[in-house]
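WARN no homologs supplied; continuing
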Amino acid sequence: MQNNNNAPTTNIDLMSADLAADPWPQLHALRELGPLVWHEQHRRWLVTTDAAVRQVALDYTHFTVEGTVVEDLFGSDAFIAMDDRARHNALREVWADAFRPLALRDLREELGSLLGELMAPLLARLRDGETVDLSAALCRPLPTMVIARMMGVPRESLADVVRWSDAMAGGSTSFLDEAARQAAVDAREAAKASLAELLLQLMRERREHPAGDLISLMMHADIARELSEEQIVPNVRQLLFAGNETTAKWLDHIFLTYAQRPAVRREISADRALVVPANEEIMRWQGVVGTLPRRVRGAAVTIGGVTMAEGDDVTCLLAAANRDPARYARPDELDIHRERQPNLGFGAGLHNCLGAALARLEAELAVNALLDAVPDYSAEADYSYSSLPLRGPTPVTITAINS
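OK structure emitted
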């Protein structure tokens, strides 16, 4: 892999704490260089603009997810890491109906019950004047409890699921030096193995005794008859991981943003029809998944006057694309009244997020529940951000404001 185009180059540290804290000036500078920028240290192309990112994400002929860190994280048998459209669709469709908005309407009451369970002790502490870590008390456990319940994972396993998911997330990037990368990969692989052991036990139980949950659906689907247990596990594991890790970080972004912008918080508190578009704007404006890896295959391909060779590694900078002025007016501003313009926060194309509608429902209900109980709150300034590939602030510690 090499840059033979005289294309712009960079050695930006995409894993630095400084960039995680405020990535926007550096991502703006990268985007100004052009739609494709060559990263000299990591020997890969960075894709910076909305149009170019969408071109890569939607071109399954010239760009593959196979052989990237996505495959390393989830395994080659996971549908999120395969380009075989027929096989991908057969696996994804096993669960697709359960995540469609119409199906999720029936989940609202159950979600409300889970929210009430989590918020009762949280609210008691806030009313006593305590400062509460909303990340630990609500943002992290809620999506984990929801996806675990949908899958039939026992509650006593949830602490392990969170710990293993965090370790997997930490090993999901190519932008580390060799020593740090190896340590992260070792932790990731150990977590994947532990999670697989738990899921394999549940899969065998559901094969004998189906329970109407998502694991049961997979174990009794037509496609499962063609697969070994070792091929099914990566698909079940990816669902459990994706259903808790990314939504938790989005909730952290949402609640921190509303703490830092009291005028916005009061506006949506007064008009709850604004909650959904406001949450969506935060997904664009801050985002969680900041990078999307691909690899050039089949032949060289040219984007924006830059030619990438077969086998070249490519990283789409979703975070940069979501603030592209060619798509969004005043992209660095948070505008909850912005004209609806779909962003890349949940991906695009074949591998877009299966659980996007569920994540949106969780965010909508969680925001409404907190605003009902604590319409005014402030956040402490002791948070920090995880790295750009999977970025979120923690801890989000809040104090109720007595008005």
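The chain is about 50% helix and 10% strand.
OK
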